[in-house]
Amino acid sequence: MSTSKPPSFFVSLPVASLSSSTDFYKSLNFTPLDDYSDDDTVAFRFPYKSNANICLMIHSTSRFEQFIRRGSKIVHAKEVTGAIYTLGVPNKEDVDGFLEKAEKAGGKKDPFEMKEYGKDLGLYTRSFEDMDGHIWEATTMLNEKAKEKA
After folding, report:
1. Residue limits of the Glyoxalase/fosfomycin resistance/dioxygenase domain (predicted)?
2. Dmax (CA) of the chain
3. Direct distance between the N- and C-terminal alpha carbons of the chain, in angstroms, rounded to an integer
4. Helices (H), the chain
5. 58-117 tens-digit pLDDT
6. CATH architecture for the domain at 1-66
7. Which residue in 100, 18, 93 sits closest to 56, CA to CA?
8. What pTM value is reported for the model?
9. Residue 10 burial (CB count, 10 A)
10. Which helix (H) or strand (E) holds 135?
11. How does strand 54-60 pair with strand 41-45?
12. Dist CA 91 CA 50 (whole Å)
């Protein structure tokens, strides 16, 4: 068992291909957590120290079905948006770099565009889709005033 502090918040997502999605998230510097992974689930710590208490768990469809209410259906994220997952990063360059990595790994940059989204709050935010259509954002605070509010 790992000696590092366990995550305190978990996000679970269904994926069509566990191996392809594992490669995708590894390319974005998500850190695998072997202690929480098995043949149907792969767990990761979110990238960047500030997000280290968050765990992403990607599950095969059959595993994910074990966790949902009986009679309900798994959302197909390319057809329906059930949530947007936002990742805080240190600076604007990291936001843009994160999206470049996502696109290079098979994701889609900027599936939607909101001009100057968050600018009035001192934020810089861009979005991407993973291979299953789950929407993610990378965001940073641009100025010290915004950082003090956080």
Report:
1. 11-137
2. 49
3. 34
4. 18-27, 61-65, 92-104, 144-149
5. 999 999 999 999 999 998 999 999 899 999 999 999 999 999 999 999 999 998 877 777
6. 2-Layer Sandwich (3.30)
7. 18
8. 0.87
9. 12
10. strand 135-141
11. antiparallel
12. 13
Which one-letter amino acid corresponds to residue 76?
Answer: H
Task: List, for residues 108-146, the tens digit of each pLDDT value.
Answer: 999 887 777 778 888 999 999 999 999 999 999 987 654
Write phi, then psi, for 108 (nearest 5 degrees): -120, 120
What single letter denotes the amino acid at residue 103?
E
Amino acid at 113: E
DSSP 8-state class, residue 111: S
Please state the domain extents for the chain. Answer: 1-66, 82-150
For the structural domain made of 82-150, what CATH number should be given?
A: 3.10.180.10
